[in-house]
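Quick illustration, no need to memorize.
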Amino acid sequence: MDISIVICSYNRAPNLPECFEHLLKQVNCEDITWEIILVDNNSSDDTRVVAEQFATDTPLNINYSFEGQQGLSHARNNGIALATGKWVAFIDDDIRVCNIWLKTLYDVFVEHDCDAVGGRIHIESPQSLPRWISSDMYGFLGHQDFGPRPHKMDGIIESPFGGNMAVHRRVFDKIGMFDTTMGRSGEGNTKQELFKGEETDFFERLANNQGSFFYHPDLLVLHKILPYQLKMRFFLTLHNNSGIMKATSDNTVYTKTLFGVPPFVFPQLLRAIGKYIGKSISKGPNNTFRLLMNIAYFSGMITSYHTINKHKEH
């Protein structure tokens, strides 16, 4: 088997038909052997029915798997264990691939023999984006575009995004699978469900083990944005959780702390607040939300450091 495509889904059965239909439209791939592994991450809707119907009614080679342990990392690892392909690709159930996606992916791996491949992810929203979402915030909605030229990536500054990524099977032997203590859980619309970081961790481990990365712009997919992802709370929660994770992963032993928090964090928070207030006055609130996200990030760090060290004292 050349390529295994792993799709993880939780209670999003309505997304699957469009996702599968775009995979049906792949061109110039007659000589490529490929399969789809649909991992049902403990859904309570018709996910299994939809997957099995497409497997029966279309030429798609769909293998259904149930993963009862909640969490995207658990689901992806389930798919990896079942994949028989030389290369394992990951897309989300709200992703629609372009019709040369599969052929391009195959050609990149054959030509460059790289460990990981990524492409472009363009966001598609059912409504116009709110004014407070600036272009530098698109990445939080899954957008990725490293330009029109194919090139190597370093895996740190530039690395694949989860909605459109693929790895050589040898990678899992080298660095293991996704860290199940990280990653989105459930529907991803509450604070506890919005902890991420598993992809960054995975590709940093690969980069630190001399992994090779390649980006190709023809690997284009469209990402459907849900209404809850266009709320300010969604962005603030993402950034607050990132601050919590940053503090949680900090193994430094600090000799001086204030309420368990390293002193350097407080000036960063105060500077972020000052910048936010200053720009709000001069530019208005619609142009300053990105700065408010920074405040949420440092607040998350402070909360986490305080909680961690409070537990250590006991």
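Residues 289-313 form the longest helix (25 residues).
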